[in-house]
Specification:
Blueprint lengths: L1 H22 L5 E3 L15 E4 L8 E16 L18 E2 L23 E3 L2 H9 L5 E4 L9 E4 L5 E10 L3 H23 L2
Parallel strand pairs: 1-5, 4-5
Antiparallel strand pairs: 2-8, 3-6, 3-7, 3-8
Helix pairs in contact: 1-2
Length: 196
């Protein structure tokens, strides 16, 4: 079933790939979630959640929530290290470069001494690798309290980012109301997660 496939994708596949990569460090895994870009103008979707403003001027853009990207890893990854603050020498996870929708979501080159070898265009897969102690990487600040044993690396470094709700222009009162409800709900959920 589709739910079983989704569960395998989110839970088992990252672990299996990380196990293989740990014993074969020359291998680079890239996990790609099922998905594609949607065209608002062709009415493929009515509203989209985006991490960067769209290039089209025919869309209405609403910034809905700011967040920080922070460096993190599981405490188990730091065993035996004297310096627990930097990324140097740690296995890394990040996005697949060819599928990266916004370079601002990737680990800047000046903060690392190696390329990420566990890659996925799914932030949930990256989160799984970080929480299981397989790699260090960037986390959304509101997800940090959701897992035990995480360590905030380079705490003085935070990358400000924003979520946007995107819709077609002149879509009427119903869409405006839906956008408002979505905006409030997303802000409340991010606040709830941060306060855990």
């Amino acid at each position: 079933s589709s739910s079983a496939a989704s569960d395998v994708y989110k839970r088992q596949l990252p672990q299996v790939c990380a196990d293989i990569q740990a014993t074969n460090p020359e291998l680079c895994f890239e996990i790609v979630p099922q998905g594609r870009s949607f065209d608002l103008q062709r009415r493929e979707v009515d509203i989209a959640l985006a991490v960067h403003p769209p290039s089209t001027k025919r869309a209405t853009l609403r910034p809905i929530a700011s967040y920080d990207l922070i460096f993190a890893c599981h405490e188990s990854l730091l065993k035996g290290r004297e310096d627990n603050h930097g990324l140097n020498g740690l296995p890394l996870t990040s996005y697949i470069p060819e599928l990266l929708v916004d370079p601002g979501l990737d680990i800047p080159a000046d903060y690392r001494d190696t390329d990420p070898m566990l890659r996925s265009s799914s932030v949930m897969v990256q989160w799984q690798w970080i929480c299981s102690g397989r790699a260090a990487g960037l986390l959304h600040d509101f997800t940090f309290p959701l897992a035990n044993g995480l360590v905030h690396l380079l705490p003085e470094v935070r990358f400000k980012r924003e979520y946007f709700l995107v819709s077609r222009r002149h879509d009427g009162k119903l869409t405006s109301r839906l956008l408002e409800v979505l905006e409030n709900g997303l802000r409340q959920e991010m606040h709830r997660l941060r306060s855990k």
